[in-house]
Amino acid sequence: MAQEVRGVVAPGKNEPVRLETILVPDPGPGEAVVKIQACGVCHTDLHYKQGGITDEFPFLLGHEAAGVVESVGDGVTDVAPGDFVILNWRAVCGACRACLRGRPQYCFDTHNARQKMTLKDGTELTPALGIGAFADKTLVASGQCTKVDPEVSPAVAGLLGCGVMAGIGAAINTGGVGRGDSVAVIGCGGVGNAAVVGARLAGASRIVAVDIDDRKLDTAKSMGATHTVNSRTTDPVEVIRELTGGFGADVVIEAVGRPETYRQAFYARDLAGTVVLVGVPTPEMTLELPLLDVFGRGGALKSSWYGDCLPSRDFPMLIDLHQQGRIDLGAFVTETIGIGDVEQAFTRMHAGDVLRSVVVL
Ligand code: APR
Ligand code: ZN
Ligand code: ZN
Predict the structure, then answer these.
(1) Cβ(43) to ligand 1 under 6 A?
(2) pLDDT, tens digit (0-9, with 9 covering 90-100), for 143-198
(3) Using a 6 Å cutoff on CB, does residue 257 contact ligand 1?
(4) Which atom of ligand 1 is nearest to the CA of 281?
(5) Contacts of 17 (CB under 8 A, 6+ apart)
(6) CB of 140 within 8 A of CB of 87?
(7) Residue 321: predicted pLDDT
(8) 104-119: string of b/e by CB count within 10 Å (b at 16+)?
(9) Which of 87, 97, 110, 240 could connect to 268 by a Cys-Cys bridge, CB 3.0–4.6 Å?
């Protein structure tokens, strides 16, 4: 029988979110119901609420979550009730061309739960990124559950489900940062600072953090940046070149998602280096670059979607490294809040006051 729980719903474009009673069906074949313990507030949740992603209102928000599997449907063998899991928004299919050629992180047929969660009156909810975890419980495809060490704090674990994984993965998976590389990160919010952590973990010897907000630069320093540049007052391309013997960085990670910061990334990179775009642009943005520079400067211009992560490979590994003290994912949790505080958390996020607010249930 469907269960009644609390969930944070965005009812319509730019309307404040509401705490509603929602109905979570019993898991069908291939599905799991997860009791949510913590869920981070991500920009994508705000974009959903603003109508910037789709117009399939009402949305059940929240997607950076960790919790315990409560029940599973027929045929589920990968997780069982009682497992501590991080939810991911890319449950790979195992059968598409990308999966079959051994690159499941590029799967083009990822899936979510088939059944719908609803409001009490039967209105179907669209779960954010197929998750919907600002709720006591949520229904997902079992492949969206990745088991990790249950000793870790849920508030920390959940963050790997989206932004922090995107940033770390942009450095270690997409950028392929290696020992001794020079790295620049443009935009040091949650994603950019995670890229700093990833670069440090991969052994980068020089990590230059760029932002227009000194608070973010201070955080980047504490996360492992060796140099910081406020690009409101200083040309970051010049400084990055100076700090790298006049060459530019081996890997430049753009974690803002704007044409002007992309251009900085492009020119701050050494010949044959790599630019990684992990910031998400909006539909009206365009980029103009001299094609001769694109050719002449060589190297690679890459995009990083979810940090090119493979949850089954990357989540347990990063949680283990955190538990061993080799990375500090806890530093991304600026504050823990209640399920009724999401609207205020959006305001603080918009003002740049937090890396992450995390709803703890
Ligand atoms: N130059 C440098 N930094 C900038 C600039 C700029 N022109 N404009 C904004 N920033 C900085 C902000 O000061 C902030 O620290 O970029 C950072 C963005 O961080 P957040 O707003 O916290 O966003 P985050 O969650 O890190 O996501 C970054 O990735 O997932 C996407 O949609 C997300 O596009 C966004 C990006
Ligand atoms: Zn696939
Ligand atoms: Zn997210």
Answers:
(1) yes
(2) 999 999 999 999 999 999 999 999 999 999 999 999 999 999 999 999 999 999 99
(3) yes
(4) 34
(5) 8, 9, 10, 11, 49, 61, 342, 343, 346
(6) yes
(7) 98
(8) bbebeebbbbebebbb
(9) 240
State if residue 190 touches ligand 1 by the CB under 6 angstroms criterion: yes
Whose tokens are 């205020």? That residue is 344
Cα separation, 341 vs 62, whole angstroms? 13
What tokens were used for 149?
A: 């060490």
251-263 pLDDT, tens digit per residue, is: 999 999 999 999 9
CB of residue 78 inside a 6 A radius of ligand 1: no
Please report the domains of the chain, with CATH numbers, ordered by start residue.
3-161+328-360 (3.90.180.10), 168-304 (3.40.50.720)
**Which atom of ligand 1 lies closest to the CA of 258?**
7
Q: Is 216 in the pocket of ligand 1 (CB under 6 A)?
A: yes
